[in-house]
Write a structure and sequence with these properties.
single chain; mainly beta; 7-stranded mixed beta sheet
């Protein structure tokens, strides 16, 4: 129904920057919100940042001041600018979209495939 294509992950040295992108496509009426979550090896998945259709943002304390989430409603795309990266940021980053499905207008969540971010010291 809904597909998310993520890009921008990779290997970077501590202190460097990366920019992640996530584009949503498929069959949906509208998007309520999009966000980024991450999961390090052996750990639970955690929220990184979210943004609503209206532009309200929310960040995890660990990334506040370093990461910036933004969106382009016309392109159904969300971005995550990551600056001053630290080794503890190393994880698989997953994009999430919350949509309203056609006809029923029920909310439904879809996840991207994940993109690896590795920060070396």
């Amino acid at each position: 129904q809904v597909q998310l294509v993520e890009s921008g992950g990779g290997l970077v040295q501590a202190g460097g920057s990366l920019r992640l992108s996530c584009a949503a496509s498929g069959r949906f009426f509208s998007i309520d919100a999009m966000g980024w979550y991450r999961q390090a090896t052996g750990k639970q998945r955690e929220l990184v940042a979210t943004i609503t259709r209206g532009g309200s943002t929310n960040y995890a304390d660990s990334v506040k001041g370093r990461f910036t989430i933004s969106g382009d409603n016309a392109k159904n795309t969300v971005y995550l600018q990551m600056n001053s990266l630290k080794p503890e940021d190393t994880a698989v980053y997953y994009c999430l979209v919350r949509v309203r499905v056609p006809t029923t207008y029920l909310a439904s969540d879809y996840w991207g495939q994940g993109t690896q971010v590795t920060v070396s010291s």
